[in-house]
Amino acid sequence: MSLKIPLFLLLLITNFANAQETISVKGSKPYPATQNYIFICEKYAFSGETNVQIAKTEKGGILKLTIATANDQARISGGVYVDLANGDVIPCVDKNVKESVDGKTTAYYYFTPAEMAKLKKTDIQAIRFIIAGTSNSFGNQTGYFTAVNRSSYFSTAYDKSKKTFDTAKEISVL
């Protein structure tokens, strides 16, 4: 009896440690995904943050971009450019897979297997995207924006810790 309890606790802790996030696009099966990164988007005055998540599929991968908006007419639209740390750029075509829930708009973009191989080797440096919609006074901000892979707004000159997310490392684990 005394051996069963520690064994059960070990299995329970291992299960929570291996718990992984998933992405499901419009009712599809869930795909294993990275953590939800919060990239800094300084020129977007409404929230200043963009949620980025990447999942692995059978045919490549999925990029999920989510940003808070002031109204339901604002959407992430058009193509997206994923800038890598080594200078490469991955263009993503808009397949018009979007959703708007609870004051946030989400757009999904797809990666080919070759593009996923690049993402496994090099960290994402930035993601460039467009927010379209109706702009009026006290409405949503529209235009071209860049979400930068930075984990915090401020730091001191003496802070030598890494200030970016290790996207390549997490994508290679998927």
What's the helix-strand series?
Answer: HEEEEEEEEEHEEH
How would you sum up the global shape? globular
Residue share in helix: 10-25%
Question: What is the average per-residue confidence, as pLDDT, rounded to a whole number?
Answer: 82
Specify the number of helices.
Answer: 3
The fraction of residues assigned to DSSP E strands is: 35-45%
**Assembly status:** single chain
Largest sheet: 5 strands, antiparallel
* End-to-end gap: 37 Å
Number of strands: 11
Helix and strand topology:
Elements: H1 4-17, E1 21-23, E2 31-33, E3 37-40, E4 49-57, E5 60-68, E6 75-84, E7 89-92, E8 98-101, E9 104-111, H2 113-121, E10 124-132, E11 143-148, H3 167-173
Antiparallel strand pairs: 1-2, 3-4, 4-5, 5-9, 6-7, 6-10, 8-9, 10-11
